[in-house]
Amino acid sequence: MCLAIPARVVEIHADDTATVSLGGVRKQVSMALIEDPAVGEYVIVHVGYALSKLDPAEAERTLALLASLDPTEAAA
Amino acid sequence: MCLAIPARVVEIHADDTATVSLGGVRKQVSMALIEDPAVGEYVIVHVGYALSKLDPAEAERTLALLASLDPTEAAA
Amino acid sequence: MKYVDEYRDGALAERVAAAIAAEVDPGRIYSIMEFCGGHTHAICRHGIEDMLPATVRLVHGPGCPVCVLPIGRLDMAIELARRPEVTLCTYGDMMRVPGRDRGSLMKAKAEGADIRMVYGSGDALRVARENPGREVVFFAIGFETTTPTTAVALVQAKALGLRNFSVFANHVLTPSAIQAILDSPEVTTTGSVRVDGFIGPGHVSTIIGSAPYDRFARDYRRPIVVSGFEPLDIMQSVLMLVRQLNEGRHGVENQFSRAVSHGGNAKAQALVDQVFELRDSFEWRGLGTIPDSALQIREGFADWDAERRWQLRYVPVADNKACSCAEILRGVKKPADCTIFGTVCTPENPMGSCMVSPEGSCAAYHLYGRWRDMEKRA
Amino acid sequence: MKYVDEYRDGALAERVAAAIAAEVDPGRIYSIMEFCGGHTHAICRHGIEDMLPATVRLVHGPGCPVCVLPIGRLDMAIELARRPEVTLCTYGDMMRVPGRDRGSLMKAKAEGADIRMVYGSGDALRVARENPGREVVFFAIGFETTTPTTAVALVQAKALGLRNFSVFANHVLTPSAIQAILDSPEVTTTGSVRVDGFIGPGHVSTIIGSAPYDRFARDYRRPIVVSGFEPLDIMQSVLMLVRQLNEGRHGVENQFSRAVSHGGNAKAQALVDQVFELRDSFEWRGLGTIPDSALQIREGFADWDAERRWQLRYVPVADNKACSCAEILRGVKKPADCTIFGTVCTPENPMGSCMVSPEGSCAAYHLYGRWRDMEKRA
Amino acid sequence: MGPTDRSAFPRKLDLRHGRVDLSHGGGGKAMAQLVEEMFGAAFDNPLLAQRNDQAVFDAPVGRLAVTTDSYVISPLFFPGGDIGSLAVHGTVNDLAMAGAVPLYLTAGFIIEEGFPLGDLGRIVASMAAAAREAGVSIITGDTKVVERGKGDGVFINTTGIGVTRPGVAPSGDRARPGDAVLVSGFVGDHGVAIMSTRENLSFETAIASDSAALHGLVAAMVEAVPDIHTLRDPTRGGVATTLNEIARQSGVGMVLDERAIPIREEVAAACELLGLDPLHVANEGKLIAICAAGDAVRLLDAMRGHPLGADAAVIGEVIDDDHRFVQLRTAFGGKRIVDWLAGEQLPRIC
Amino acid sequence: MGPTDRSAFPRKLDLRHGRVDLSHGGGGKAMAQLVEEMFGAAFDNPLLAQRNDQAVFDAPVGRLAVTTDSYVISPLFFPGGDIGSLAVHGTVNDLAMAGAVPLYLTAGFIIEEGFPLGDLGRIVASMAAAAREAGVSIITGDTKVVERGKGDGVFINTTGIGVTRPGVAPSGDRARPGDAVLVSGFVGDHGVAIMSTRENLSFETAIASDSAALHGLVAAMVEAVPDIHTLRDPTRGGVATTLNEIARQSGVGMVLDERAIPIREEVAAACELLGLDPLHVANEGKLIAICAAGDAVRLLDAMRGHPLGADAAVIGEVIDDDHRFVQLRTAFGGKRIVDWLAGEQLPRIC
Ligand code: SF4
Ligand code: SF4
Ligand SMILES: [Mg+2]
Ligand SMILES: [Mg+2]
Ligand SMILES: [Mg+2]
Ligand SMILES: [Mg+2]
Ligand SMILES: [Mg+2]
Ligand SMILES: [Mg+2]
Ligand SMILES: [Mg+2]
Ligand SMILES: [Mg+2]
Ligand SMILES: [Mg+2]
Ligand SMILES: [Mg+2]
Questions:
Q1: Which domains are present in chain C?
Q2: Distance of CA E70 from the midpoint of ligand 5 (Å)
Q3: Which residues of chain B have a CB within 8 Å of the CB of C262?
Q4: D108 CA from centroid of ligand 2 (Å)
């Protein structure tokens, strides 16, 4: 039950909910825990609620860091 | 639903009901409409209630009357 | 089965048939109405008509409580059953009777209404006790035979303080119906219905006795024989009527003496009187609105009266135009006279109430007797 | 799936694995506890252990809310569910957890209790609105990740005046559990559990931030890396821990920076604070009774508190003697160390809570990893 | 891989306290265990032991008869049997009514969540015993579990496969004017036994269901009279409905003699009480046979020589009638129609 | 006696407003009419037209395959099909998995009181269309009606009969170490399509059920490789459970390659959302095939040449393993077990 997964906000509804999309699957979730959600942003979704926004720059930074690890050095 | 059928009282219970028997089938029915039912007596049963006692002498009399009709006279 | 089988004896039947055949006046028609649907059913089931001379004609009367209940009253029951809090307990016979817009209790049940078929009022009481969270309503119908059994249930419910039980009462009175027949224009004026005498409903008379018929015999000069329901009972009653008619008499005779007295069941009458009172007027299918022809629940039992509890209101609804039940219930038509008998109207898809209960004339004919009409037509 | 697939990339995984392999000190054991069952699950599902040097040992922690709930609290839920007026809404994971006398919510449901599996508290609210005649109770469990979602439902229920909804609250606190581990005799005294550093639960930290861990890192001198849940996140967190350990550092680092900040989600924290307050003490399976380690519903929401509404009382129940869940939750044992793992205790017939939720160590090992133990034994 | 393969299923099914839950229909290990330990053990035979999603076997030579029925009877256990034995008898009988030798059955279970495993075990054991006694194998099956409130304990579908005998081809459309109509014994026992258990009708009677497999009786019959025109078991709707079906299929009428129809006094009495016609009441161990008038005595003798036909009787004859009416000469001396059952009689007698 | 025999059934079934009531299962005239006007008309074929309680036909020469399944899916209508088409496809597929040519189906309906006749008509029409398309005849059937609250709309049992091809004998116990494991296309579509309709999970996706009859695909496959060792359709419990069943039956292990398993992105995403393994999700138009390694390429080509196998793939190999584990090399680079489905996934996907 501790599952949480990033999804993109595709539509914001009046009742503090939003439709999010994950790999083509759309689901309506609560935005009650999020300040100012916006279409196009990614949020972490857990048991039908968005928990936090996802920061694309930080996501890139993490991946870049991983990619920068030097396998040749490692293989040594 | 207007079905009513004679059955023999085989057991009287405390709650103004009795078990009656018809051709080997036993059923518990209300005796609320009957004065002083007794085991061995026949009653007319309708929707789970005994409606009246059946008078064996009268029953015989009716059959005797029918049997007394003279078929030879009738055939004439 | 003692007191059953003896009265179905084929050998005795031949004797009675022979006696009737011997005693009828060949130049005379004997038109006899059996008031009660139970008699109609027995006549068809045992094939009694085959054993009577052609000049003895049986006319089927209005004595079927399922048949005479008008659509408007049935609709009240359907409306009740549809209430989410209500469990409606009904005799199975009522399930298929067509109401307004081709509705029925059967359809309401299929659509989700909580409707239970019960064997009698006692079962409805049991359902109420076992389901304290439900409003259990007993859909009570019937002539005087059945009324006391409803009265018992109401007295018991009151004694138990059983507040989730109530009765939707539709009990009607036999003498009112007989009077309506005898006063109908078809009998009094046009002569399209001929009733020379009556086979009286023996089960009704176990309760009310034979006394209530005395005035009809006297005032309308028609012989009446209160009859049992086995085929020999009916045959004998026919013979007794033939004899009265042959002799120009018009008395009340009691063929069902093994179960019926002149005064009836006093205990049952007292119970009915305790619980019920006359209703100002009641609409009957076929017979129209008749004053003082039905019963309603007394003030003292108001808390168990479903009509009061839900403030039910009767809205008259016209019968299906194609249906001849009204005429059949008055004896004006026979089932086969209805243009849709056996084609559009069948027991599976009844268009009128007479096609539902096995005691309805159309149902009894369809189930047991329709070959007869086919033969006649052919 | 953006932000998912990238973090499962096999080629990048090889790089990280190579880096870890290159950077570990061959003469040293790195014993790292992943606190969270979500991490345990991901480790087993993706086969991460296969990609780590033998000297990097992952110790599974107590961070599975299904696993740590003691039998007595589950029994309270079963008792609630058995009440005829109650509809209990629960996360599916709880259904098979064994309670007293081998009972479970699944068995209670099979015996007739009205129990619905829901996706979250929002669905439970919907059930309550759609069934005004039922008492709908939401069986709320979870760490800080889940607590705010329960808080939202309670605030909404109060705003709507929804009186047939209530919450049976069992929310527990991550820092309390970490502290219990660090203070346990196995860690402090006997040394039977070695925890060199922690992989911190990233989803918890989306709400509470990374700040609450600062004091552990400082006071207990253990590095902590708050980690995401994709396999590359975990691998990277391992690498970050290895580096801290190699360098003798013990700070809190944030691998999951794309979703976690130092302060966490202020809006969520405010909501939790509005609805919940600290519970004086709470019994955890495996960790014992810990003061201030769980939350209870505040007075202002008392009308929506199932514990108050039904005056539920907690009765402690001893764990099954054969079951080693307590030791597994403290990191003292691994699933294969339990004598009944995979024989008497299986996901179909779990004997302990750790065999139920996919985040429980025993379940994760049984589903994904038991060949590994078989190989070792063979 | 036998029923005691404890490596796959470490804990035995708990027949004393266990109940069916949704996992038993989920397709996973719990279902595999139920199938293996309960169904596999009780129905054990080489074809079932193939443990595939189908059974494969050499086709018998000749003509095959195939029939299917779902059993939804309430109550599941009743005087004279239970849904398990009924599910075997009913389907075996539909094969026997084609004059076929029953060979194989399939079994599909739809079980309601919460159903006691012990009761399921009793039903399965009874089904296995009935199949063994009838000489048929249950060769493949299926298990589904539905949520509580979406079923009624257990429903069972059985499909039967048999092989017909050369020269024996009874069919509902082969009744001809002049043919004799026979019944194999007392009618209405099954329906009355079931109705006696229903709470709102409650009456007591010694009547038990007649549920039985009739292929042995049929074997004796076709040996005596291979050219039986029609065979049918009068189940739901009773003798009346079955005869009407045949009349309609064959385009004929019938005339029955009420005095000749074997009806037990208790059955007649129960029908009087309930306002039912015994000819509309269900049977599960009786058959209707129609044959040329000249074969009737021989057929009747063969029937009476078999325990399940001891009370057999000729009850009427087939006539020419464009209306396809089934008529009855009443014991009283009149005549009436015997009609199809109209509406439902009482729910779920099979 | 045709479907328009108005003398027996004067009023047509009311498909617009009518509902099934108890009389439709009572064995009387209402049932006869439902059977004739709805089932008889839709499924029309000479064997069904025998209108007996069984169908009789010449036995095919060879080996017969027989299978049975009850369908209790909820909802009854779903993206990509309905219970009617599913009841044909599922049973045809179990015949196809024996390498058999499907010939005949039986159909047993258990209908809940109150079910709209119009919906029943749609289901029956869909079933008839699926049967027609698959080239099988529905030759006999049965109808039961249960009281409201004792069923769930409609349950359908179909039993299938087919005839196997000489030299073709796939079976679950024939997987051998070294064999290749193939799947015919994207996995998990059916289960995800069904789950997307469930109120408490509600999500939207373009995924439709893959429900389809696979015997055409199998025909192409056995033509290319007659000696396919094992064929099975991974329905309830998904690919994972099916492979475990086979591993257990054959006494072998398997190793799968996660990267090779065809899974649509939407299916993967829905599984992430719900915490499910796509390998545990049901399929209704996919098959698992196991063959000798040397036959794998030929078999794969044959599969890809058929529209229902266009996305077929070799996903793993059979190994020697006393533990009978099915293992997976993860895309990430590790290894894990692929276990049986434990417990129920989500109720009633077939
Ligand atoms: S046949 Fe039907 S429509 Fe005609 S009178 Fe009788 S009940 Fe009415
Ligand atoms: S295997 Fe089962 S009994 Fe043993 S510790 Fe794990 S959950 Fe408890
Ligand atoms: Mg009357
Ligand atoms: Mg956690
Ligand atoms: Mg059949
Ligand atoms: Mg049958
Ligand atoms: Mg199956
Ligand atoms: Mg049959
Ligand atoms: Mg099958
Ligand atoms: Mg199948
Ligand atoms: Mg059938
Ligand atoms: Mg299959």
A1: 5-63+185-254 (3.40.50.11750), 67-173+264-309 (3.40.50.11740), 325-368 (no CATH)
A2: 8
A3: none
A4: 22
Ligand 2: residue whose CA is nearest its atom 6: D362
Cα–Cα distance for residue pair F32/F25, rounded to 1 Å: 9
- Give the largest Cα separation in chain C, rounded: 67
User: What's the D356 CA to ligand 10 centre distance in angstroms?
Assistant: 28
CATH class of this structure's domain B6-71: mainly beta
Nearest residue of E to residue F251, measured between CA atoms: E1
Chains with at least 3 CB pairs less than 8 angstroms from chain B: C, E
Where a domain ends, among E118, E133, E164?
E164
- pLDDT by residue for chain C (378 residues), tens only, comes to 999 999 999 999 999 999 999 999 999 999 999 999 999 999 999 999 999 999 999 999 999 999 999 999 999 999 999 999 999 999 999 999 999 998 999 999 999 999 999 999 999 999 999 998 899 999 999 999 999 999 999 999 999 999 999 999 999 999 999 999 999 999 999 989 999 999 999 999 999 999 999 999 999 999 999 999 999 999 999 999 999 999 999 999 999 999 999 999 999 999 999 999 999 999 999 999 999 999 999 999 999 999 999 999 999 999 989 999 999 999 999 999 999 998 889 998 899 999 999 899 999 999 998 877 666 655
Domain that holds residue F330: 180-337
Beta bridge partner(s), residue D254: D226
Stated as kind and residue range, the H or E segment containing C255 is none
The partner residue sitting opposite D45, judged by closest CB among F325, F336, F342, is F336
User: Has residue E350 been placed in a domain?
Assistant: no
Last-in-domain residue among F164, F192, F219: F164
Look up the pTM and report it.
Answer: 0.95
Inter-chain residue contact C371 with E275, CB threshold 8 Å: no
Among candidate residues D7, D21, D12, D9, the one with its CA nearest the CA of residue D50: D21
Cross-chain Cβ contact D110/E21 below 8 Å: yes
Asked if E29 and E147 sit in the same domain, the reply is yes
Tokens of C369: 């007797």
How far apart are the C-alpha atoms of D216 and C195, rounded to whole Å?
Answer: 106
Whether residues F78 and F225 fall in one domain? no
Q: How far is C341 from C363, CA to CA, in rounded Å? A: 10
Ordered by start, the domain boundaries in chain B are 6-71
Task: Read off the tokens for E112.
Answer: 């309601």
Nearest-CA distance C180 → chain E (Å): 29
Number of domains present in the structure of chain E:
2
E strands in chain B: 5-12, 17-22, 25-30, 42-46, 49-54
Which run of H or of E encompasses C62? strand C56-63
Q: Residue E342 falls within a domain, yes or no?
A: no
Query: Are F113 and F45 in the same domain?
Result: yes
